[in-house]
Amino acid sequence: MPFWIELLVSAFLIIGSIFALIGAIGLYRLPDFYTRLHGPTKATTLGVGGVLVASMLFFSYHNDGLSLHELLITLFLFITAPVSAHMLAKAAMQQKLERIEKTQGKPWD
């Protein structure tokens, strides 16, 4: 395997891991449901996307062809994550879930 492919795969793995770690820390540390929702939907989605791009590069080189499985997984993830976050936020608004003062907007009043 050429050095530049190893470097690209390693870079995407590290960047993806950092984004996933930031998303997990955000999920743990943020104070209310509405702010906590951003951790898994934003940063963790980018983290998984970085790992999948690294996997696509690695297996495309080893199989002598373009690996599209990871591209389809990434596309599905980028489509479903915002939809599921929107549905969770709407359900929380229907339940009138408590929020901290810094969370802006109060659409149920």
Automatic annotation (TrEMBL):
Keyword entries, A-Z: Membrane, Transmembrane, Transmembrane helix
Positions of transmembrane segments: 12-31, 43-62, 68-89
Molecular-function annotations in GO: sodium:proton antiporter activity
Pfam entry (one): PhaG_MnhG_YufB
Domain of life, per lineage: Bacteria
Identification of the protein by name: Monovalent cation/proton antiporter subunit MnhG/PhaG
Species assigned in the record: Pseudomonas saudiphocaensis
